[in-house]
Amino acid sequence: MICKKSQDNIFLTVCNTKIFPRNLFFYLHISFFLMASKILTGNMPEIMEKIINNLDKDFYSLHSCALVSRHWCTISIPILWRDPFFDENSEFISIYLSSLNHNDVLNNDEKLALKECGIIIDSTDTLFDYANFLKVLDLSLLDSRVSHWTDLRVSSKRKNKHLLTFDLANLLLKIFIKSGATLTKLDLYFREDYVEISVEVFKLLGRNKQFLSRLQVLFVASISEPFMKKAILFLRILAESATKIIDLKFSTLYCDYENYQKRELYPAFVNVIKSQEKILRYNFIGDGGLFSNFYGVISAVESHKKVLKELLIDYCVNDAEFKALENCENLEVIRISRCYNEMEILKTLSTSLCKISTLEISSYGPIDTTHIIPTLKKSGLSLQRLKLDTSSEKEIQSQTLLFKTLMESCSNLTYLYISGIVLSAQFLDLISCLQKLQFLSLCWKNDGSEKVEVMKTHIINFAEILPLTLEYLDIIDTSSSSYIDTLLDNCDVPLKKLLFNLDTSNDYEEKIDSLIRFCIRKKTLNEVYVNIMTFNKFNRPDLISNYWDKIQKDLEEYVELVPYSDIFVDIV
């Protein structure tokens, strides 16, 4: 903690979080440049503030900046503390709690909780009000970090340990609200396995409207029946306090409440929608039911349809409410995922769709592309990202027409994710036509009837026509992974990321060698994910782990082996 009496030690602020910069040369280089520059005077403070603000999630560089000078430190520290719960290290919680002073009013439960965790209230005046810097709050991460923090300090044998987590989490919420912090992003959850908001915090929210007044991104999800009333109360406070939300996401998936409870919850959410000045991005995730009443959560967006740019609909059914969104003239991104009658929803929306830049249709059943063609033609060269994903065993219908339309109208695609197709001559023509393509994910059908030599010829042709702009190739869901050696040996594209399957019982060495040869030849591949397929009757996790370790060792000199979550690129 930094005291006013010892401002000369301001750099200790960096050490408080127990994270140190990897590259000290960063700030040394910048410092040297600035010392030799006349820019140290005049507009220098404003310029540096903009530069450092752009670092955002680059924590190591931010810590480096904080070590350069007092001025840089006062710019960097607030950025580092915008979203502290993002860091898995929970030690920062001690700094929040240690900032309490004797004038703070604590209830008996909170005093007991602090005592059990060894926190002594210190009245020292701090240079930084860390709580005031908070901009991003996720209740699930709050619960997780507080639980981890208490686990390190309190015996696992303690009874009602969850009550301790409840008291400390709500104490942190009180600290944030009283500090004058103003959130820009909030993720809300109302379930048994997440922290429950106390009545005292609700009262504080009602009296301190500034806490939510600048909110821009809101996600509400996982509302269970016992917490319904508190969820509704929070939504009412939001409707009164927040008017600047531009990105709104509401999920009812896996929520365990009945239709009569929807009639209470949904209107509260509708009020949040209507109280906003302009919503640019709206994502509604339904409950997956065949028969659902939306109670206005779709039609309420009509008041924003002149400015709405992104519409994402998941796990819904086609409903008359969608007609309210027929004339969203500025819509640029539309995603319809795992819905019933996706094409009917698209048909309703497409009456006015003109210049869509991103389109996703993900379906449980086969996709009939004849319903998509009109939207593709209208969008034309504006369309840059396209995802057509089917979980069905059947192929995408009207493939030839789809490929022809994309070649003639949508040659500006930079992202393509497509499944349920056949590796045909028409498809190869399409890929060769997409000369701006950077991200490609494929899942083509192969019933095994193709002879090995014929399939190899297809793979060679595919590898040779890949555009030189391609940086990311995902073929995990295709049978072509069996021919990954053939593909890589004939590929001249400077790939940076690659995802593929590897059958450990089928020419393992040959396939790994081909990957190494590609790395040496192109010198561009940075990351690779290998989906290990063992095909043994046990399929034990320890065997898969052993194979992963072996692959990692074989590739460590050439390319980094990374988890799927770190490399996968989705459309939005």
UniProtKB/TrEMBL annotation:
InterPro entries hit by this protein: F-box-like_dom_sf, F-box_dom, LRR_dom_sf
Assigned keywords, A-Z: Membrane, Transmembrane, Transmembrane helix
Short name of one Pfam family: F-box-like
Transmembrane portions of the chain: 24-41
Source organism, top-level taxon: Eukaryota
Domain F-box: 45-86
Descriptive protein name: F-box domain-containing protein
